[in-house]
Amino acid sequence: MKIDVKHIQKRGKAGWRYRRKIPNELRAAAGKLEILIPLGSTEQEALNAYPKVHAQAEQQLRLWSRPHSPTSTNGTPSPTEFEQFRLSRARLRALSLDPEWSGQEDGDDPEALARELIAEQIADKYPVDEHGHPVGIETEDRALIHALVLGERRRRPDPTLEDAKRLYLKERVGEDETKQMELERVFKLVKEALGVDFR
After folding, report:
1. In terms of C-beta distances under 8 Å and separation of at least 24 residues, what long-range contacts does 127-132 make, across chains too?
2. Is 152 helix (H, G, I), strand (E, B) or coil?
3. Among 156, 125, 159, 130, which Cα is nearest to 142's?
4. Would residue 74 count as lying in a domain?
5. Residues 55 and 95 grouped into a single domain
6. Same domain, 132 and 168
7. Whether 198 contacts 162, CB under 8 Å
8. For residue 37, what are the β-bridge partners?
9. Which of 40, 43, 44, 146 is least crowded, fewest Cβ atoms below 10 Å from its Cβ?
10. How many domains does the structure of the chain reveal?
């Protein structure tokens, strides 16, 4: 009998696994390109495990699709997508890696090997779920793993009004509390005029 179920893959002697590509727009949150979960060594084990594993994958995709809180646990604003992108590129340079890397060229590509090793070291800092996937990855580490895995295939996020506000705050306002309050009022008016949250 041949299995014809979505996201199931036969791996020779290694048995069966659930393999599912993560949509492009969720890869930053996931920190990886696909979901890989072992299903068992036999066809029957794979069929029995499939419903639960598929439901877990669906739930994980829903979690990754939820927007993150704009404020971190210590009360400071979390980096915007644009800031995360810039920070992860700077971290790549600090690790002597190429921010413009376009992907593995062959099996012995030293850049690809270094990226994989660093991504694994970052993920190893976090606890794992029952399938061995790291959980609770901090925003900056998630962005760096994403940069390590995808290289230049990452979508460069457009700067938002929130990015403009933070840049102006940093370069023109500084520690002046009066100017900080004025800036908050101006951007509150802009937000109300546009009728959207510009994060």
Report:
1. 131/37, 131/56
2. helix
3. 125
4. no
5. no
6. no
7. yes
8. 18
9. 44
10. 3
Task: Check residue 196 and give its pLDDT.
Answer: 62
Same domain (yes/no): 169, 142? no
Residues 133 and 187 in one domain: no
- For residue 71, tell me if it sits in a domain: no
Residues pairing with 10 in the sheet: 16
Report the alpha-carbon distance of residue 170 to residue 79 in Å, rounded: 14
Distance, CA of 167 to CA of 159 (rounded, Å): 11
Rounded Cα distance between 15 and 63, Å, is 29
Domain containing 30 equals: 8-65
Q: Please state, in angstroms and rounded to a whole number, the distance separating the CA atoms of residues 144 and 28.
A: 9
Residues in the chain: 199
Q: Which residues contact 160 (CB under 8 A, 6 or more apart)?
A: 80, 81, 82, 198, 199
**Residue pLDDT, tens place only, 111-159:** 888 888 888 888 888 787 777 777 788 888 888 888 888 887 777 888 8
**Which residues of the chain fall below pLDDT 70?**
1-4, 66-76, 106-107, 196-199
* Helix spans in the chain (H): 27-30, 43-65, 81-94, 110-123, 139-150, 161-168, 177-194
Q: Is residue 182 part of a domain?
A: yes
80 with 28: CB under 8 angstroms? Answer: no
Residue 3 lies in a domain: no
